[in-house]
Design brief:
This protein has one domain. Helix content is 66%, strand content 0%. The chain is mostly helical.
Length: 77
């Protein structure tokens, strides 16, 4: 059963396709708002570390975050 969280808050449309892709990939595991927050966090982190954030880089970082979250939730059960 997916976790319940608030509505998505992404304001940068460049990453909407990343949210869509990862939401589909993690459907049944994470709510779309969790995916959105991970994409936002990945974007901010990439910008802070490298000075820019491409959708490909953000996707890879967010996917890793979502995989770790899924493992943590599985361990709690």
């Amino acid at each position: 059963m997916p976790e319940t969280t608030s509505a998505p808050t992404t304001t940068d449309q460049r990453f909407a396709s990343v949210v869509d892709l990862l939401s589909s990939e993690f459907s049944g595991v994470h709510h779309e708002s969790t995916v959105t927050r991970c994409v936002d966090a990945a974007r901010h982190g990439a910008e802070e570390v490298t000075g820019s954030a491409t959708p490909d880089l953000v996707e890879r970082i967010a996917r890793q975050h979502l995989q770790v979250l899924a493992l943590a939730f599985a361990e709690q059960r």
